[in-house]
Every structure is written in structure tokens, then in C-alpha cells.
Amino acid sequence: MTDNRGMRISAKADYAVRAALELASVSDDASLKAEVIAAAQGIPHKFLEGILGDLRRGGLVVSQRGGKGGYRLARPADTIAIADIIRVADGPLVSVRGVRPPELSYVGPAESLLPLWIAVRANVRKILGEVTLADVATAKLPEEVQGLAEDPEAWTNP
């Protein structure tokens, strides 16, 4: 039996990033309707509407009503990090028991867990904070990220 638990990217965060990538793929002044995004990415329409509302409230997308209405990115795709989208969709990138690592404290032999959790958080933030929508939409991931992804053991569990 395989244990597939570990760090998780929620369906909501995955859908939010995919929707933003659809928006990144059109010209800056063009809008896409939610139905078009949902169909293109295979995202349930009602769920997507809520996600787009979150992204709008988070300042990452703008919406326009009317015949030519729809959604578009609020700023250029090369200025929106994947981390920005995940934070709007799900909150903090890394938490332990729902608490951010700096708010934790440990004693005895567990004391060094805190710097370990902080290092994990820092690495997740580094990768997701440096990779932009434009990087993913154009398949031009930073060299360091591409190198990590190409490691044969990246998707295997020891």
C-alpha cells in the first residue's frame, strides 16, 4: 500500500493557479468568461466562480460585466507569483497543525523542530514566490526549479 500523504496543494489552489494561467494566456486587455476558463481547464463552473471571486477580492484579477465582460489579470503575469495565488486561495503556504511555524514552540529533544519547519517554509516560499504566472504559461521555469523537477527521485517516496 502506498502512502500518498505529505505536503498537499488543495484542489482549490490548483484550480486557482490553472484559472490564472488561462487568464495569463490572453492579451492584457482581453477578458475571459468563467465558463470559458472552466471548460478549458476542466474546473467545475460553480467552484470556479467562488475562486474567481476570491482572486478578485485578493486583487489578482478584475472583472467586468456585460457582453464583453469576464475576468482578466489585475496586473502583468510576470508580476504575479504562484505563491500570491495560493495564498489568496488557501491562506499561508506552510503551516503546522494550522499554525505558522514562528508561532510554535517545542521543548526538549523536539526543540530543533522549529528551525526545521521554518526552513521547509522558507524553501516552499522561495520556489513559489519566485515562479510567476508568465514563467509557467511560457514553460520557462527558473533553472533551479527545472533542475529540482528533473531529479528522478522527485516523485518517489523512499
Question: Layout of SSEs?
Answer:
Layout: H1 11-24, H2 34-41, H3 45-57, E1 61-64, E2 70-73, H4 82-90, H5 113-130, H6 133-137, H7 143-150
Antiparallel strand pairs: 1-2
Helix pairs in contact: 1-2, 1-3, 1-4, 2-3
Question: Would you write up a description of this structure?
Answer:
- With 158 residues, the protein is mostly helical.
- The chain has one domain: Orthogonal Bundle (Arc Repressor Mutant, subunit A), CATH 1.10.10.
- Helix content is 47%, strand content 5%.
- The chain has 7 helices and 2 strands.
- It has helices at residues 11-24, 34-41, 45-57, 82-90, 113-130, 133-137, 143-150, and strands at 61-64, 70-73.
- The protein has a two-stranded antiparallel sheet with strand order 1-2.
- A hairpin with a 5-residue loop joins strand 1 and strand 2.
- Helix 1 (11-24) packs across helix 2 (34-41) and helix 1 packs across helix 4.
CATH superfamily: Winged helix-like DNA-binding domain superfamily/Winged helix DNA-binding domain
Residue-averaged pLDDT = 89
Give the uncertain stretches in residue-range form: none
- Estimated share of beta-strand residues: 5-15%
Q: How many domains make up the coordinates?
A: 1
> What is the spatial order of strands in the main beta sheet?
1-2
| Gross geometry | globular
- Number of E-type strands: 2
The largest β sheet comes out as:
2 strands, antiparallel
Q: What is the annotated CATH architecture?
A: Orthogonal Bundle
Q: What percent of the residues sit in helical stretches (DSSP H or I)?
A: 40-55%
- Supply the helix-strand structural class: mainly alpha
Rg measurement, Å: 18 Å
SSE topology string: HHHEEHHHH
Which CATH top level class fits? Mainly Alpha
The total of helices stands at 7
Q: What fold name stands as the CATH topology?
A: Arc Repressor Mutant, subunit A
Euclidean distance between termini CA atoms: 13 Å
